[in-house]
Specification:
The chain is built from 15 helices and 2 strands. By secondary structure, the protein is mainly α. Among the domains are: 118 residues, Tetratricopeptide repeat domain (Serine Threonine Protein Phosphatase 5, Tetratricopeptide repeat, Alpha Horseshoe), CATH 1.25.40.10; 70 residues. A hairpin with a 6-residue loop joins β1 and β2. α12 runs parallel beside α14. The protein starts with a helix and ends in a 9-residue tail after the last strand.
Length: 296
């Protein structure tokens, strides 16, 4: 009673300090063993939070988990449903779906994740959560269809997460040709050096074909040459060298080592357009031995 009273006094002064409310609710449930008062604390906690301005996914999840421990699944579901309506943060959908998954309710999980995608259509984690569910359910056709829909959305945030998830899924199923095809499709969209490295690692470690991996790296190097991406080109060569050191022989290691560039420090003088003051800027230039006119 003394501790409960202390909590009430503190909350009377600072009623919006969320972690005091959480501590109070946990105390009533776990220490005082007063289930009804704990429930009242959660209800009051949610009343004082201005959900239209901000909300806390953790509170909704704690409240729902409390009702699960009281074996009232219907109430827990109602709490999560209200949380989606008033809060709608990604963590809410994940927590709700995890509850239904533990109960073996796959169809309910699908509905939750469908709502997640509806409210957050450009969040790759919403799509990945749904895809992972279908993989777990061994629904390959559904999972692939979702992947295709997701990577086809131009407005998607950090689409590379979806491409990685799609490729990893195919690799996990042993669908090597499908995974390779995805890498080729991805390279049509972006020629980022990370894609070439990942593709090479796929050929090297998953397919166990060092010759294939070398071809991927060589393609990447040619792209870098065409675009004068010297730093990226050097990075690919370093990656190639690490592959050869682990799986190649002395001849292949020497070949790649001799392709590495020399780094040359250069000083450039810049003049401020407004003040006219001059300053020096140090830059790094890469000199590749196989470039025409190279003095390396």
């Amino acid at each position: 009673n003394l501790v409960s009273g202390a909590f009430r006094v503190v909350l009377g002064v600072s009623c919006r300090y969320v972690y005091i409310w959480i501590s109070y609710a946990l105390f009533e449930e776990l220490q005082a063993k007063d289930v009804e008062r704990c429930r009242q604390v959660y209800v009051k906690m949610l009343e004082v939070i201005p959900h239209k301005k901000f909300s806390f996914a953790k509170i909704w999840s704690l409240y729902a988990s409390f009702e699960v421990r009281q074996r009232d699944l219907d109430k827990a579901r109602l709490i999560f449903g209200r949380a989606i309506a008033e809060c709608g943060k990604p963590k809410i959908f994940v927590a709700y779906a995890q509850l239904e998954l533990r109960l073996g309710c796959i169809d309910r999980c699908r509905k939750i994740y469908a709502k997640f995608i509806e409210l957050h259509p450009f969040n790759p984690r919403a799509w990945i959560a749904m895809i992972d569910l279908e993989v777990l359910a061994e629904e390959q056709a559904r999972a692939r269809a979702l992947c295709e829909l997701a990577i086809g959305m131009e407005e998607m945030d950090t689409p590379e997460l979806l491409w990685k998830a799609y490729i990893d899924m195919e690799v996990g199923w042993g669908a090597v040709d499908r995974a390779r095809s995805l890498y080729e499709r991805l390279l049509e969209k972006t020629q980022h050096v990370k894609v070439f490295k990942s593709f090479a690692d796929f050929e090297w470690r998953i397919v166990e074909s060092l010759p294939n991996a070398r071809k991927v790296i060589e393609r990447g190097i040619e792209v870098c040459k065409e675009n004068s991406w010297d730093e990226e080109r050097a990075s690919l060569l370093e990656h190639w060298l690490s592959m050869e050191r682990e799986s190649g022989d002395a001849q292949s290691i020497g070949r790649v080592f001799n392709m590495l560039p020399k780094k040359v420090k250069k000083i450039r003088v810049e003049r401020d357009k407004e003040s006219g003051a001059e300053s020096t800027v140090e830059t790094t230039a890469y000199v590749f031995p196989d470039d025409p006119g190279s003095a390396a």
